[in-house]
Every structure is written in C-alpha cells, then in structure tokens.
Design a protein that fits this description.
0% strand, elongated, 5 helices, mainly alpha, 76% helix
Length: 92
C-alpha cells in the first residue's frame, strides 16, 4: 500500500541524510585530510563520524549549537589525531 500524504518516511529519511551529508561531509573531509593520514584511515574516520553523528539522538540540537566542532569530537574518537590537525591549522 503506498504511503499517502507525501514522500514515504524512508524517502524523507534519505533526503534528510543527503542534506546532512552535503552540508558537513566536504568540510569534515577537508579537515581530516589536513591530518595527512592514509586514505583508507581517513575514509574510515569520515564514514564512522558521519554515521555516529547521524544516529546520535541529539543530532539536530548539537549541530545547531556546535556545528563542525561537534562532528570533530566524533572524528577524534575515531582516530583523527587532534595534535596533527592543530599543527596543520596553524600553518594555514
């Protein structure tokens, strides 16, 4: 039976994730690359960070209050070395 009243919940969820990804993945990826890690490790950090942030129950509130800083806390927990990132940011 088709969902009446607009897009299905799955379609809305997919659209919301796409918007989330487009808004944050490029910025986060750029910061991860500054750490100069192997590509596979960088990709894993990005994927795991976005997945954990997306699944976090307070995602919308945390993003609106802390934005990219909140995402970086997940990236650090996934293995992004914050000292390398700090050094890279200071050389820009």
């Amino acid at each position: 039976m088709p969902f009446l009243g607009g897009p299905s919940p799955a379609k809305r969820h997919q659209r919301a994730f796409t918007a989330f990804y487009k808004a944050y993945a490029p910025k986060l990826w750029g910061l991860i690359l500054l750490a100069n890690l192997p590509a596979s490790q960088s990709e894993t950090i990005l994927i795991n960070t976005l997945t954990k942030a997306w699944n976090h129950p307070d995602r919308q509130q945390s993003l609106s209050r802390q934005g990219l800083g909140w995402l970086l806390s997940f990236a650090y927990a996934e293995g992004l070395p914050n000292n390398l990132l700090k050094q890279a940011l200071h050389t820009l």
